[in-house]
């Protein structure tokens, strides 16, 4: 057998990598597979690696998209999941300077549209008009270059499309305690100081108003029957993947018992697999060292979930998409490894289930916000999500650890206030109500890795968060 395969490949000026041989040895008819690959492929690489061989084999599997048979009839009628916002197929950035200009202009205009609805926006002036006058004024501006002076006051730059002005917040001002972030857009209320020898025209700020969310709490009514389950950070392929806990979860979903028959939707908040090359020496912590094989294994597992359950999955920083946010959905050849009831969206995405608006974001910027804001606690990731909502942006600051793609449209702005806002990334289980929005940080299915030990990350794994839209209640199930 091996000699036949070697001969077929040699005649086409190539050979197999060790990893490809390892994968080929697991297949039923490796000779036929290699012969067909050689016959149908005109430009094989040298060598042929697992990254080439696995997609070819999976594409030939006739049953790879079969639906999961329901072992029981569904007890609830589910609504169609509608995708309302997603970067997938809509990326326009090329990395040119104009992309950044357009991106930040779109951010400003979108957030200005939100701010202008606030009663505090009455009497707003453009900066080019403010610098020509003195006295009380209010502007909508993007913040830049925040620093603390030697006297303990705050100095910053305020900018809008018409110009910029130096901002100043006294340590005695009511606005002083505000956690200001560069690139956020706010209403600034204050007084203009005329230009003098020692300083330029300055806007002395006494109040900062963010876009925020409506403070009134409205009782939500819905005709959605099925409960919505939330999980995240599965990390298939890792040696620390919690197989036993995950098996209990799948068995529960299969059984139709203990409430699982009421689940109509399953939201997966990113990091479906552990990936490859995400952090230093990750390969030492991998059980499955082929990225396509990681997805294939997960796809097979998700076939155990009854087909009437609609599964919605977004990528995370461990998945096989670009690292910059927003991230598109998983590529088509990866999606084909999953059953038909899996809906793939980008990161972030807004979906509607009946009348329920769900904002899904993996949560990469939570680390940045924890570094910059004293109000954010990484053990309680919902504290960061609350700050995102108040600023109406998922990645408020450009140039930190979370890379942003300069798309013409800033799809990281939170245009519509969601009913449910879900993240993952932090490997914590956290739930919080922020006015009308339910905040959920989904749990993980990975135990602590050596890399996490080094960074003192303590996971809170193997929980399913379940939302009942009829009762408007949240439960947690430990698996």
Q: What does this molecule look like?
A:
- The structure is a single chain.
- The chain has helices spanning 2-10, 18-24, 30-40, 50-60, 97-115, 127-130, 243-255, 291-302, 332-335, 366-372, 382-391, 450-454, and strands at residues 81-86, 135-148, 154-160, 163-169, 185-193, 202-209, 227-231, 263-269, 310-314, 342-344, 349-353, 356-360, 420-423, 430-434, 437-441, 463-468, 473-478.
- With 479 residues, the chain is an alpha/beta fold.
- The protein folds into three domains: 2-60, Orthogonal Bundle (Helicase, Ruva Protein, domain 3), CATH 1.10.8; 81-89 and 216-478, Purple Acid Phosphatase, chain A, domain 2 (4-Layer Sandwich), CATH 3.60.21.50; 119-209, OB fold (Dihydrolipoamide Acetyltransferase, E2P), CATH 2.40.50.
- The chain has a six-stranded mixed beta sheet with strand order 1-11-12-13-15-14, covered by helices on one side. A six-stranded mixed beta sheet has the order 10-9-8-7-16-17, with no helix packed on it.
- β8 (263-269), α8 and β9 (310-314) form a beta-alpha-beta unit.
- α1 packs parallel to α3 (30-40) and α2 runs parallel beside α4 (50-60).
């Amino acid at each position: 057998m091996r000699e036949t395969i070697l001969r077929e490949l040699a005649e086409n000026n190539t050979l197999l990598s060790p990893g490809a041989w390892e994968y080929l040895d697991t297949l039923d008819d490796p000779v036929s597979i290699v012969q067909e690959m050689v016959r149908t492929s005109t430009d094989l690489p040298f060598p042929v690696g697992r990254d080439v061989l696995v997609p070819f084999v999976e594409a030939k599997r006739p049953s790879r998209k079969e639906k999961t048979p329901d072992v029981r009839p569904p007890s609830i009628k589910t609504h169609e999941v509608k995708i309302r916002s997603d970067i997938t197929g809509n990326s326009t950035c090329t990395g040119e300077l104009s992309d950044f200009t357009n991106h930040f202009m779109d951010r400003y205009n979108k957030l200005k549209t939100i701010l202008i609805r606030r009663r505090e926006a009455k009497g707003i002036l453009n900066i080019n008009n403010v610098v020509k006058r003195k006295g009380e004024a209010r502007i909508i501006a993007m913040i830049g270059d925040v620093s603390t002076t030697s006297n303990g006051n705050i100095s910053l730059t305020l900018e809008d499309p018409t110009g910029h002005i130096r901002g100043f917040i006294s340590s005695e001002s009511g606005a002083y305690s505000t956690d200001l972030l560069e690139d956020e857009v706010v209403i600034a209320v204050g007084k203009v100081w005329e230009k003098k020898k020692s300083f330029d025209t300055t806007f002395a700020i006494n109040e900062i108003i963010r876009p925020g969310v409506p403070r009134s709490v409205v009782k939500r009514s819905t005709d959605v029957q099925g409960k919505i389950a939330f999980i995240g950070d599965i990390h298939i392929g890792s040696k620390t993947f919690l197989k036993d806990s995950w098996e209990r979860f799948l068995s529960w979903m299969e059984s139709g018992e203990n409430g699982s028959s009421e689940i109509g939707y399953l939201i997966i908040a990113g990091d479906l697999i552990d990936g490859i090359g995400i952090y230093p020496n990750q390969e030492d912590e991998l059980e499955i060292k082929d990225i396509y094989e990681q997805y294939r294994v997960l796809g097979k597992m998700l076939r155990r979930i009854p087909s009437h359950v609609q599964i919605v999955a977004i990528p995370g920083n461990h998945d096989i998409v670009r690292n910059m946010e927003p991230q598109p959905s998983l590529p088509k050849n990866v999606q084909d490894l999953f059953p038909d009831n899996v809906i793939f969206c980008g990161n972030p995405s807004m979906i509607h289930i009946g009348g329920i608006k769900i904002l899904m974001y993996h949560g990469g910027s939570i680390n940045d916000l924890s570094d910059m804001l004293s109000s954010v606690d990484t053990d309680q990731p919902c504290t960061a999500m609350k700050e995102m909502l108040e600023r109406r942006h998922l990645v408020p600051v450009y140039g930190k650890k979370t890379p942003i793609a300069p798309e013409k449209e800033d799809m990281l702005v939170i245009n519509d206030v969601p009913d449910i806002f879900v993240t993952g990334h932090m490997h914590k289980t956290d739930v919080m109500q922020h006015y009308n929005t339910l905040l959920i940080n989904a749990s993980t299915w990975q135990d602590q890795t050596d890399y996490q030990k080094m960074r003192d990350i303590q996971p809170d794994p193997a929980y399913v968060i379940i939302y009942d839209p009829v009762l408007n209640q949240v439960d947690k199930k430990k698996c």
